[in-house]
Design a protein that fits this description.
two-stranded antiparallel ribbon, 2 strands
Length: about 130
């Protein structure tokens, strides 16, 4: 049986302890008052309130503009429908015939054609009814 021989290890030598160099450190100065901090916080809060008020006002103006536009659109749509109905009524054949008669016009008689090739008139022209 073989074992490794034990070797004696030397204990580490104690190191000489040196005391750390200590210095007196002054504590930071306390601020004299909280007034600047409170003024800053108040300004931020006031700015946020003013921004919210401005946003709310612009939203109300936009809402009023949209409502006004919808009202105007409804009115113009109604007027457009009335004009389309009037145009349809005035464009009917009976309305056109009545208007022509009130202007002194008479219905056309027989239809007459002109031959372009030889310049003759085809058909008999008569007076209106």
């Amino acid at each position: 049986m073989s074992t490794l021989p034990r070797t004696a290890t030397a204990a580490p030598l104690p190191r000489p302890r040196t005391r750390p160099r200590l210095e007196v450190v002054r504590s930071p100065e306390q601020s004299k008052s909280l007034v600047p901090f409170l003024i800053g916080c108040s300004l931020v809060l006031l700015g946020a309130l003013v921004a919210a008020l401005m946003l709310n006002t612009s939203m109300a103006v936009a809402s009023y503009t949209i409502h006004s536009g919808k009202t105007e659109l409804a009115t113009l749509t109604e007027v457009g429908d009335q004009l389309a109905e009037k145009a349809e009524r005035l464009g009917s054949p009976s309305a056109i015939q009545d208007r022509a008669a009130s202007l002194g016009m008479v219905p056309a008689g027989a239809t007459v054609y002109i031959s372009v090739a030889d310049g003759t008139i085809l058909g008999t022209a008569g007076e209106g009814n």
